[in-house]
Write a structure and sequence with these properties.
The complex is a heterodimer. Chain A is α/β, with parallel strands linked by helices. Chain A contains 8 helices and 10 strands. Chain B is mainly α. The chains are: A alpha/beta, B mainly alpha.
Chain lengths: 260, 285
Amino acid sequence: MVAKLQVQNLSKYFLTRDGEPRKVLDKISLDIEENEFVCIVGASGCGKTTFIRSIGGLIPAEEGDVRIDGKRVEGPGGDRGFVFQHDSLLPWRTVLDNVIFGLEVRGMRPSQSHPLGMSLLKLVGLSSFENHYPSELSGGMRQRVNLARALAIDPDVLLMDEPFAALDAQTREIMQRELLKIWAEKRKTVLFITHQIDEAVYLADRVLVFSSRPGRVAADIRIPFARPRELSLKRTPEFLKIVDDIWSLIEQEVVASMAA
Amino acid sequence: MSQATAEDVSARQAASVIPAALRDAPTPAQLAWVSRRRAFMSVIGGLILWEIVGRYIVTNPILFSPLSKVLEIGWKMTLSGELARHFGVSALEFALGFLLSAVVGIALGFAMATSRRTQDILDPWVSFFYSSPLVALMPFFLLIFGVGLASKVAIVFVIAVFPILLNAFVGIRSADPHLLEVAKAFNCTRQQVFVKILLPAALPFVIVGLRLGIGRALTGVVVGELFASRAGVGYLITAAGQSFDTATVFLGVLIFSIMGVVLMEMLKWLENYLAPWRKNVTEMR
């Protein structure tokens, strides 16, 4: 069977200030199965955000290709839903109008999109907030809207670029648990970028470790914990062992990136 | 019924827990009321001072004129219909010139912000004219458009158009790149990006441009009528000045000032109507 999301030999270059091409992603290949939750961790500057942005079609990749259900994709498309690191909600739209943005762009009528948006708001725990403006919401609530907006277009693959990075520690934990709950209900294929190893291990079926300069897949680790997972899982020795193993894989690169 | 009583009791208990210092602190609504009252008293005080100075301190009617005298003349001219005639002329010059500058300014500003080529071509001209004292063009407009309405509309237009244009330009350019990325991720067409992202992002800037434009357009009306005219509030001021009628000069200036204040208030109302999310932001803080 063909994997849901296939990435083959994806390479990406940036031009330095002197006009020299610099490789930031080096022949990355990976397969993600249907309904699989895959996290990518790596030191800052390892190209993980560049990677997910090129999967999402926000920036072009020079070499290699991305396939969804075996079909090659180029540029952004409705088969991928993007959850941004910055909540990126449109400040002039109410919560509901933000959620249905992708549907509106496709020309869906409000009579159809509004009930859909309301059910998604209920899913992310924000019913009764539909008429609020983003400025009236907390950071965690805004990221819920961000997620609902990506889910609204019913994508095959959900691409999440460090969506909880800007949240405080407690809110982040709650959001991780909520995300798993929503994922269990919606059953999406998820590619999730994070720099937090415990977040990756808690959420994922598989954790990919990126190495830096240029970005490569250094390790592919299967996470054995049964679902549904409670937050208390994070305090178990088995969990901490995996986190520790991954940490030792990227420690040198983190130190190197801090020195740089 | 019993539920309501329980709520009352708990509310009273909650109130008794609030520290005295916090309970006695003024609410934002009270503070706003205090601000409004102060502003009102300030205006009243200023008007009274004007009356006192005009009546008892500078008694020479050529040098100064008390408020009561100015209002008296205003009332007389209202009854004779003279004031309405002058005001109508000025208001028409203002309205035509300002609307023209708003339409052209916003259109050119948006065109420059969305097209690199348009920007490259127009940019040197905009910089040149924006930094020129365009009031000096009035004699030229009089020569080609004559003493009537057209020359006034022309001067109002050239004076008001540039701040409107530049703010519209900056507004589009200041759209958050993150939001443009959202538009890209959701596959927006160019037209959708403009209508759903750029336009609302630019709106507050456009309003600022229009606000500056109103002030400059009023100046344009005055300047136009000062140079040469047969009617209008500016003409009224010039004619009164030449016959040492200070009270009427004051009346004319007062009319322009009130026009400015009223137009600014209308713009504020327009902004609240078009951009309710911004009203929310200010209310929150």
